[in-house]
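Exercise 7b. Backbone tokens:
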């Protein structure tokens, strides 16, 4: 894995403090949100805990600067509003983060199913997320919990049916 290329803002100490001026704060939030998505994609990581104090995304060791939990919440709540994150617990400590929205993942998977002629076939989540047929697709190596959430969107639209199997989930796709 190649080293991650941090943006210049990450090396700028004020970037780690939520700015009081609304326009500046909005721009800062946008840059942080993009950074969250790019960095987590780089790591192939779909879950974060706001208490991971040494996580490089939250802590720049070279500057000895750290995002406050309030700032992390602010960024994650922005990602939630844009469809890129959801809290996993009531205290909002654990978060699931999506590089694409669940709707986008759902459409990618359904398009791939149609392209590969798998309509009316049953696939396991493993086949979709990690199978050799999905290599090169944006959803390849997706976290199965995220995939399941995306499939629920398709299920609500009548485009698939998710079924519980002995060792996980399967899904049958429709036109």
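Sequence design result:
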């Amino acid at each position: 894995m190649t080293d991650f290329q941090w943006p210049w803002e990450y090396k700028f100490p004020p970037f780690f403090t939520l700015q009081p001026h609304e326009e500046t704060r909005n721009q800062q939030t946008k840059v942080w949100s993009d950074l969250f998505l790019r960095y987590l994609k780089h790591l192939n990581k779909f879950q974060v805990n706001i208490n991971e104090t040494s996580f490089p995304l939250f802590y720049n060791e070279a500057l000895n600067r750290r995002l406050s939990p309030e700032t992390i919440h602010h960024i994650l709540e922005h990602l939630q509003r844009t469809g890129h994150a959801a809290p996993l617990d009531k205290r909002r400590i654990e978060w699931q983060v999506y590089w694409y929205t669940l709707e986008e993942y759902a459409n990618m998977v359904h398009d791939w199913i149609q392209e590969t002629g798998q309509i009316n076939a049953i696939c396991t989540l493993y086949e979709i997320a990690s199978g050799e047929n999905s290599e090169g697709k944006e959803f390849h190596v997706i976290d199965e919990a995220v995939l399941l959430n995306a499939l629920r969107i398709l299920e609500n639209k009548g485009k698939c049916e998710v079924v519980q199997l002995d060792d996980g989930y399967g899904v049958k796709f429709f036109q």
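Instructor comment: The chain has five helices and eight strands. The chain has a mean pLDDT of 94.
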